[in-house]
Design a protein that fits this description.
mainly beta, single chain, 1 helix, 96 residues
Length: 96
């Protein structure tokens, strides 16, 4: 009897380009449009979403602001983690 584990399978490799992903530039919060820069939601991409377990309750987005572009103040109704790769950010809130 043969037992195949996930380590015995050929790895899946896929390459995705940000330019091919849907872009969100604003949201409405309490009826007011809030500018977000350029947001790419990984879950919105069907192929990338396959790698994010549904039970993980994880949302991953790539956000880009142009030089000197500022993000409108807005609210995240969930806990959030930010990784700043270039530039700086001022985060408001209670840190919860």
């Amino acid at each position: 009897m043969s037992h195949v584990t996930e380590y015995d399978r050929k790895p899946v490799f896929s390459q995705y380009h940000r330019a091919d992903m849907e872009t969100i530039k604003s949201i409405k919060e309490n009826g007011i449009e809030k500018l977000l820069g350029e947001v790419k939601n990984f879950r919105a991409n069907e192929e990338m979403n396959r790698f994010i377990p549904e039970q993980a309750r994880l949302a991953v987005s790539w956000v880009r602001l142009a030089k000197n572009e500022k993000l409108d103040v807005h609210v995240h109704p969930i806990s959030s983690l930010y990784i700043i790769c270039e530039g700086e950010a001022i985060l408001l809130g209670d840190g919860v």
